[in-house]
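Case study 2.
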Amino acid sequence: MTITTTAGTPGVNRFTRSQLLRTAQLFATDPDLHRHVDLGAAERTWHRLDATEHLEIWLIAWPVGSSTGWHDHLRSEGAFLTVEGTLAEHSWSGGRAHERLLPRGEGRSFGSHHVHDVANLGDSPALSVHVYSPALRGMTRYAVLGGTLQVTGVEQAGEQW
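Prediction:
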């Protein structure tokens, strides 16, 4: 893959959003993904598949009813692909939430200022591959209060996950 430099961010190399989605698609084809996470766990479990300064790849297992809560990925762009089950992504724009369903084989990419909540609203566990560039440094957490999105905190990578 070719690494491109993002305008306005001197010295930070990033993959394009389409490259991030293609990377998630490639990793999703691994027939041994299941061995890295517990699909029977009561809470979300995750496993970092690979990481460099410029690219980070995660596998996440989603029990029924689990969700991430509203968050962004600080300055990282990203993509994710549903490997098993169906995930619902709620994104925030124009002062309201929008829902997108992502069944098996469906994915999406997003920019560095994308705020979303991803959930397994189905009736069976789900599995997904997530790719970020540059590697995650943390996540900003949000809550919907009075019809607006409010910052509730920032998690630093390595401290809470």
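Residues 43 and 63 are 6 Å apart (CA to CA).
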